[in-house]
Amino acid sequence: MISVVARNNVKVRGSGQRVMVFAHGFGCDQNMWRHVAPAFEDSFQTVTFDHVGAGGSDLLAYEPAKYATLSGYADDLIEIVRELNLTRVVFVGHSVSAMIGVLASLKAPDLFSKLVLVGPSPRYIDDVGYTGGFGAPQIEELLTFLADNPMAWSAAMAPAIMGNPDRPELGEELTESFCRTDPAIAKDFARATFMADNRADLPRVATPTLILQCTDDIIAPEAVGAFVHEQIAGSELVVLAATGHCPNLSAPAEVVDAIRAFV
Q: What's the whole-model pTM score?
């Protein structure tokens, strides 16, 4: 049986008594933290990993039933932290991994001392009294498009998600990252991500939480960040000057400064 460390391609770097765990978003891998995680290696041990199906993870470990919801990914995160004999880690999750971290903190609160949620969204689909940013037909259209033509979906969606049209190299990097993801797994992960509704989980979060909200983010609009902040008691909300959905690539220094002030 493959080890947890090999399954998720876990990398541990840095030094220090405290530990910071970084989790990447949909269609990405741990490489997306390469401009942020090293900034903390002088004072923290840093842990990066790939969700099963992404990057250097073991594709044979993918189980459709387990990963049909975000709960399966949260279980993996808990297993990684326990396998490394860690407790009280600072968790930094981008995009869908923000909610994966929330779920993990509810399942195993002793493992997490702080949560940093970068571009979080508990629900992408609009509802009565709630702005998620998308209508249900839009999400179904996105999921169908991804299933039918993953390459075209990546080329169309990645630059829009990244934002920063004046820096096309960022959109190109995200496109290439999307294209490297196994299409069948990407289809499943997209459905688990975009159909999730974790709004009811937010008031249960007792771990100190920082929310990093980007400006002009089509995936997680400012109304969503405000909602997450409102629902998690005692949370801090920082609206970044960074635009788009991936400040870990487009504005890493701003992300580092915000995390550093929180931890």
A: 0.96
